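Re-run requested by the PI after the first attempt was lost when the workstation crashed. Everything re-entered from the original request form. Ligand of interest: iron/sulfur cluster.
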Amino acid sequence: MATDKPKLAMYWAAACGGCEISLANMHEAILELDRDFDFVFCPCFLDTKKKDLEAMPDGSIRLTLFNGSLRTEENLEMARLLRKKSQLLVAFGSCAVSGGVPALANQRSRDELLSRVYLEAPGTVNPDRLFPRVLSQVPEGELTLPEFLDRIPSLKDAVPVEYLMPGCPPEPERILAVLRLVASGEALPDPGTVLGCSATRAVCDECTREKRDQAAPALVRSSEALPEPGWCLVEQGVPCLGMATKGGCGALCPAVQMPCSGCYGPLDPDGDAGGAGIAALSGAVAAPVDHGAGEAQLVARSRATVAAVADPLGTFYRYTLSDCLIGERDQEVVK
Amino acid sequence: MSECAVQRDSCCREPAELKIVAFLCNWCSYAGADKAGGSALPVPPELSVVRVMCSGRVEPTLVLETLRQGADGVMVLACHPGDCHYKEGNFRALCRAELLERLVVQLGVDPVRFCFDYVSAAEGEKFSRITCEFAARLRQLPPIG
Ligand code: SF4
Ligand code: SF4
Ligand code: SF4
Ligand code: FES
């Protein structure tokens, strides 16, 4: 059905579906989407196929929201195809912006991952050591599967993107604001801009928990904490990354007693989530002030204040490992 | 002859190939480095010193960025606990070091490449010793990359 409305596409690569749910969570505003856009491609919501996309002229889609991470050759192929067909390609959600949760697998090599999943995982029985193969011959002919990539890159490192929209997932109101902006025909922000979040304010700025200007005696593990409601989590030792994280979500997690785990990414656009998170938590614990104690004692006590962060990588790069400053080096340490 | 020169004889890489960046706190460690210089104690030639007002000034991102840009090793040297000019900057630095040391291992970097230690203004000898030992350890590692 031909229409003059700008075309909209949404695609999931290696995704959980949460990003699409967030779009659906715009509730009745979804009618605005239908009024202002011609929704031409979205495997989650519409019966549209890759061949429909291939048949469209290059650059004919006004806006594509690309979510999920790039785990397989197929994900990459779809990223390249949608890049070609779209005027505005948005890396949508933490997975597309910076690898997201799936990119935590970048800690291990492709072979380690496959043997873990197909041979070693508890409950796996695979005596014939069968692995997925790109090409398999069966009596009926050839079967193919997309290749599993060595590591997950962020979308912007695989294809040029106009905008980034972080969040796991991005909030519905923020999605609506972006859709309205594009539909309005008004001047758009410069390419490379991070949309749907605050460029200058951290999650703490949006958080209503009371800051009492107190340092925590020591960090505690989130799973073992019973924080006092209404009082800043990090001041109670719960490793909340609000200070290091871009605002925009409205401090959703602290509002329900959960520490911010950093899904909107580091506040500093050139920053590194690991560096930012370490700086934030190291500044939140009390320094030992007892000058009578010996140096070794002071050092041990001070180190112990951050010991509860048992897995620094998983804590600080939960959504951002693809963008880690030193993530691509050859592994020096034998695991 | 110095310990440093002895170790260099047994090393596998030329000094010129090595890049070490040392962030020294202005009030203690930098003065300690001066003292080492004034006492003509050996200091590895490949050490690039960055003077900062306090070890607490060294953002962890700066350490990661320094490694990314090809430094073989990064040192952060501070005033002794209790002696920080800004009272607790070196405790911030220590907590950061604790987390960084564990993080870099997870990122596949040999933890030998990062060193956090204390050098007072009087410890020229210690400055010389720990920088030479650090360089010697790094020379045993392949180039970073
Ligand atoms: S960003 Fe979060 S919600 Fe979106 S696909 Fe990734 S894991 Fe799911
Ligand atoms: S640290 Fe967490 S709980 Fe405290 S103000 Fe910031 S976001 Fe809120
Ligand atoms: S509080 Fe943090 S983890 Fe939670 S939604 Fe906001 S940015 Fe994401
Ligand atoms: S002033 Fe030396 S460590 Fe703070």
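Saved to the shared folder this time. The mean pLDDT of chain A is 94.
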